[in-house]
Design brief:
Blueprint lengths: L5 H42 L7 E5 L2 E5 L1 H45 L8
Antiparallel strand pairs: 1-2
């Protein structure tokens, strides 16, 4: 690593940062996807219940009795919000992946001595 130019060493550091950011994005995305699956499973479970069934909604550390229609609406809203977050993370992931690949190509070219064009 000592025989690399400071520019290449800096690019390697940036590459590692991008990789860490990508891992964070993928982790968050996986958490949101799991939450969506859980909410959809809850929707399926309550769909079989009668409209007057006793149901509870967790609000912080308190369980509150709510009507089925209120819980269904909350679950739908939660799913929509999470799916929007997932789409946002997917855009970030795609952008970061592009930066990663571009920087990786620059580093490879610099190491091979071809002198890749610099990125903004």
């Amino acid at each position: 690593m000592n025989n690399l130019s400071p520019k290449v060493q800096n690019q390697l550091g940036m590459l590692q940062q991008i990789q860490q950011q990508l891992q964070t994005i993928l982790s968050q995305k996986a958490q949101y996807e799991m939450a969506v699956r859980e909410a959809k499973r809850a929707q399926e479970e309550i769909s079989d219940l009668t409209d007057d069934a006793v149901m509870y909604l967790s609000v912080g550390t308190v369980m509150m009795q709510k009507k089925k229609e209120v819980i269904k609406a909350k679950l739908t809203e939660k799913i929509e919000t999470l799916e929007l977050r997932i789409k946002s993370l997917e855009k970030q992931e795609k952008m970061m992946q592009g930066k990663f690949e571009q920087l990786q190509a620059q580093i490879k070219a610099a190491i091979e001595g071809k002198g890749a064009p610099t990125a903004a």
